[in-house]
Every structure is written in structure tokens, then in C-alpha cells.
User: Which sequence fits this backbone?
């Protein structure tokens, strides 16, 4: 059995490498990516947890937290298989909030530095980071650049806010990993992935760093808490 942790890339790699070995994954849009046939009946040798694509929620939240921002930047990793879906979802959310969205791309450390330089040139008032394994591996770099440039940014994991990032919103990672562990246990006891429906997160974490909020001169609106 393979436990493909870390998002979409590991899940796709595991699927391509093993056609019969049971695989338990955590990934966004598993049906759209072709990982499984359906959420209710995965079919094949894969099952797991759908992390949901919450970029629209993050666009809404950061636009409410930073109402003066008329231009918001979205940083995506072009190597991520769902980057086009992320961009479409973010564009729709930006239009609904009446803000302009600028797309920045980075798949290396150097490109992250360049993206922030472009962000400053665009005079973007806020930044949205979608869930992405590469970005999560560069957590300290991203938080430091946002702080250095005084850019209000919203992330997916609570670890970003704990490291000094402004705000994070996403599914509970511990909850997702617990479900992956439960499914792994069931498979080891004889269950087949095809019979285990894809689980969707029910617990979400909203974390706001009050020190960063104060440093950026922001006030937290009640609408942010209402979205939990």
C-alpha cells in the first residue's frame, strides 16, 4: 500500500507508478484530475481525502480584510496540475468582489523572489496563496517576503500564521491525515480502495496573527469570523 501525502503531485505520481497497489491520497479535485471515477465510488486502486479548492474563499476573505486593496495578486505554481482550475476559481471570486486579479507564477525559489518584485511593481494591495506542496516547502521564504514588503497575504496552513503570516484558512491537516490513516488501516485489514468513498473535510481552521494584523494597520471585520 502507498500513502501519497503532500497534495496533488504525490497522488498523481503514485497513480502513474502503481496500477494495482492500493493508494491512499490527499489531493484537490480528485475526479477532475482523473485520480478516481467519482467521490462516492472511486473505482480502481485509489481512495483518500479531497482537500477542496478554497482559493475563492481566500480571495473573498483577503478582500474583506483589506478593503482598500483594489488589486489582488494570486501566486500559483505552474507545475501544479490544478493551477488552471485555481486561476479560474480566483478570477470568478475577484469579479464577484469587484477587485482586479493579477496572476503571478513561481516554481522555484528564485521565481518566488521575482514574483514578489513584480507584485510590488503592480502595487497589489494583497496576496493570495493557494494550497501547493512547493509553496508549503518554502513557507519561511514566503512569509519573510510578505513581511519585508508589507503585503497582506492569506495562506492555506495554520503554520504560515504561526510563522508570522497574516491569515490562514483551510482544512485541518491533522483531521485529513487522521482519515488517511483510518483508510490505510481498513485497507490493511482487507478493504479495497474502490469501495471506500472519497472523504471531504468537515473541519476548517481560520488562524489570524494579531501581531501581523497590527503591524499592517488592519482591523479584522466580523465577516471574516462569520465565514468559519
Assistant:
Amino acid at each position: 500500500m502507498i500513502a501519497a501525502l503532500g497534495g496533488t503531485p504525490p497522488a498523481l505520481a503514485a497513480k502513474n507508478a502503481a496500477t494495482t497497489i492500493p493508494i491512499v491520497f490527499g489531493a484537490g479535485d480528485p475526479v477532475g484530475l482523473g485520480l478516481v471515477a467519482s467521490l462516492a465510488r472511486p473505482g480502481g486502486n485509489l481512495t483518500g481525502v479531497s482537500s477542496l479548492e478554497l482559493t475563492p474563499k481566500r480571495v473573498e476573505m483577503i478582500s474583506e480584510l483589506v478593503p482598500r486593496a483594489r488589486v489582488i495578486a494570486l501566486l500559483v505554481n505552474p507545475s501544479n496540475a490544478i493551477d488552471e482550475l485555481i486561476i479560474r476559481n480566483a478570477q470568478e471570486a475577484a469579479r464577484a468582489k469587484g477587485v482586479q486579479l493579477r496572476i503571478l507564477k513561481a516554481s522555484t525559489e528564485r521565481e518566488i523572489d521575482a514574483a514578489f518584485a513584480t507584485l510590488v511593481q503592480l502595487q497589489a494591495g494583497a496576496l493570495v496563496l493557494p494550497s501547493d506542496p512547493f509553496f508549503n516547502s518554502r513557507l519561511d521564504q514566503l512569509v519573510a517576503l510578505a513581511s519585508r514588503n508589507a503585503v497582506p497575504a492569506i495562506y492555506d496552513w495554520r503554520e504560515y500564521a504561526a510563522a508570522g503570516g497574516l491569515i490562514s484558512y483551510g482544512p485541518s491537516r491533522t483531521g485529513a491525515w487522521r482519515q488517511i490513516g483510518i483508510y490505510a488501516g481498513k485497507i490493511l485489514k482487507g478493504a479495497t480502495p474502490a469501495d471506500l468513498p472519497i472523504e471531504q473535510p468537515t473541519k476548517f481552521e481560520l488562524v489570524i496573527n494579531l501581531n501581523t494584523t497590527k503591524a499592517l494597520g488592519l482591523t479584522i471585520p466580523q465577516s471574516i469570523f462569520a465565514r468559519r
